[in-house]
Amino acid sequence: MDFLVSSGALAYSGYGWPWDWPLVWSGVIKPEEFTIDTKSFTRYYREGNYRWYRPWSVLRPLAGGCWVNSFGLSNPGLAWGLRKFNPYPWEDLNIILSIFPTSPEECSEMCQMAEGAKIVGIEVDVSCPNVDSTRGVVSICRAAKESTSIPLIAKFGYQHPTWLIREVAPYFQALHLINAVLWATVFPHKKSPLARYGGGGVSGPIIQPFCEDKLKELAGVGVPIIAGGGIDSIEVVKRYAELGASAFSFGTLFLNRPWEPNRIARKWRQNSLSL
């Protein structure tokens, strides 16, 4: 697992949203070359902010290949997701099931529901600001560790304090940092085009310095780190690797230049083999 498709960038299945399908069918995007991190599921259906008939109302482009979104965790619920993965119809993909539990009890239930699913891991997503209590995060992470033998990944946001991430790191096989940064953190003196939804999360090259800061803070944490956040070239992969990341995730780049993630991954692997 060296490169991931993150945050549902290729939907729930790994084969993309409807606008991605021609690119997958034509071979421009090759999902089988990545580990697929699904869009996060809540325990039950959650309406959120996304509406299929006006998707751009919660996703806006910014300058420099950046985006702001406020999907609000719209999803059909974990039971629906597990029907897709058990049995999973495409055997050539490695799937990490991303879950967003709101309590330790719910986390335990969701992890137990995933037992037997054809997945390679569970990502416990606590990166969304909807989980406000740091102690709540610790309890949720502990519950995941105690509830399943499936490999576990924790996904954190820039807003989480370093001490918290270090405290729960031993519960997991890897940490996933970070895919978006809150609008108010990136643009503290500028109004968001998604202000009606609370501002949203910013992704793309502009958040690279935030990702680098988090990697520096977590040096020597003791578990592998999957670095995301604005990866748009092999040079960025190299910088994140030098700061301690051992795997990397693509998200926004699938919106900007969908052919690039596969190209970057292949080039990195070729360079690694030649060393």
Strand content: 15-25%
Q: Which percent range fits the helix content?
A: 25-40%
* Rg estimate, integer Å: 17 Å
Strand order of the largest sheet: 1-2-5-6-7-8-11-12
How many strands in all? 12
Overall domain count: 1
Q: In the CATH hierarchy, what is the architecture at level 2?
A: Alpha-Beta Barrel
* Largest beta-sheet characterization: 8 strands, parallel, barrel
What best-fitting shape do the alpha-carbon axes yield? globular
What name is given to the CATH topology?
Answer: TIM Barrel
DSSP helix count? 10
Mean pLDDT: 90
How is the secondary structure organized here?
Elements: E1 3-5, H1 21-25, E2 35-37, E3 59-61, E4 67-69, H2 78-85, E5 94-99, H3 104-114, E6 121-125, H4 134-147, E7 152-155, H5 162-168, E8 174-177, E9 181-182, H6 183-186, E10 201-203, H7 208-217, E11 225-227, H8 234-242, E12 247-250, H9 253-256, H10 260-274
Parallel strand pairs: 1-2, 1-12, 2-5, 5-6, 6-7, 7-8, 8-11, 11-12
Antiparallel strand pairs: 3-4, 4-10, 9-10
Helix pairs in contact: 3-4
For the structure shown, list the relevant keywords:
about 280 residues; alpha/beta; TIM Barrel; 4-stranded antiparallel beta sheet; globular
What can you see in these coordinates?
With 275 residues, the chain is of the alpha/beta class. It has a single domain, classed as TIM Barrel, CATH 3.20.20.70. It has ten helices and twelve strands. The protein has helices at residues 21-25, 78-85, 104-114, 134-147, 162-168, 183-186, 208-217, 234-242, 253-256, 260-274; strands spanning 3-5, 35-37, 59-61, 67-69, 94-99, 121-125, 152-155, 174-177, 181-182, 201-203, 225-227, 247-250. The strands form two sheets. Strands 1-2-5-6-7-8-11-12 form an eight-stranded parallel beta barrel, surrounded by four helices. Strands 3-4-10-9 form a four-stranded antiparallel sheet. A hairpin with a 5-residue loop joins β3 (59-61) and β4. α3 (104-114) packs parallel to α4 (134-147). The radius of gyration is 17 Å and the shape is globular. 42% of the residues are buried.
